[in-house]
Amino acid sequence: MKLQKALKTYGAGTMTASALATLLAIFLSLAACSKAEQKTTESHLASSEKAAAEAEAAEEEFAKVKMAKAASRERKVASVSRKASRTEQAYLVQVGTFRLEENANKIEAKLKSVGLPAFQKKIEHEGETFYAVRIEPTPTRSEAEKFVSSVKAATGESSLILSVGR
After folding, report:
1. What is the pLDDT of residue 83?
2. Cβ atoms of 158 and 152 closer than 8 Å
3. Where do the structural domains in the chain lie, given as residue ranges?
4. Within 10 Å of residue 7's Cβ, how many Cβ atoms?
5. Is the pTM of this model over 0.85?
6. Alpha-carbon distances, residue 125 vs 80, 106, 122, 131 (angstroms)
7. CB 151, CB 95: distance < 8 Å
8. Residue 96 contacts residue 105 (beta carbons within 8 Å)
9. Could you give the CA distance from residue 137 to residue 118 in angstroms, rounded to a whole number?
10. Which helix (H) or strand (E) holds 92?
11. Closest CA to 111 of 145, 147, 144
């Protein structure tokens, strides 16, 4: 097609045989180059697609391994935490248990006003609701005993030390 266009443009009748042969050789070599370049390009494209697919597969495999390692690490941490929580001891001071929430609120407010870390726990038992006022857990019994003394000084009431596993 290009050859015909060139012949029309330059006029085949005015060209010498050698010029025509040269022109023909140039067009044939260009056509040959185009086909060779096209095959090379297709070959490069195929190898690029293959490399991209291999890279994607490697990334997926890496992600799976990374997720598996993370899951394994989480299981180990959870296992260690469970073991530690079974062996650690904590002490909790229970100041009182009340049927009326407003009574629990009054005692909790009084304890907090003197700087004690008091909180309430709502307890359901046999269809009834109770409100326990407690002091936050401490790691040692001696610290819990100090809280008992502070509660007695603030409220005039006795309290209990509960031993709980963390």
Report:
1. 46
2. yes
3. 88-165
4. 16
5. no
6. 33, 22, 10, 11
7. yes
8. no
9. 10
10. strand 89-98
11. 147
Indicate the burial class of 103 (C-beta count within 10 angstroms; 0-12, 13-18, 19 or more). middle
CA atoms within 13 A on the CB side of 6: 14
Question: pLDDT digits over 68-91, tens only?
Answer: 655 655 565 454 445 445 557 899
Total count of residues recorded for the chain: 166
**Sequence letter at residue 101:** E
Dist CA 81 CA 149 (whole Å): 32
β-partners of residue 92 are 162
Sorted by sequence, the CB contacts under 8 Å of residue 137 that are 6+ apart come out as 90, 91, 92, 164, 166
CATH superfamily of 88-165: Sporulation related repeat (3.30.70.1070)
Residue pLDDT, tens place only, 137-157: 999 999 999 999 999 999 988
- Determine how β-strand 128-138 pairs with β-strand 89-98: antiparallel
How far is the C-alpha of 134 from the C-alpha of 89, rounded, in Å?
17
In the block, residue with structure tokens 């190898």: 47
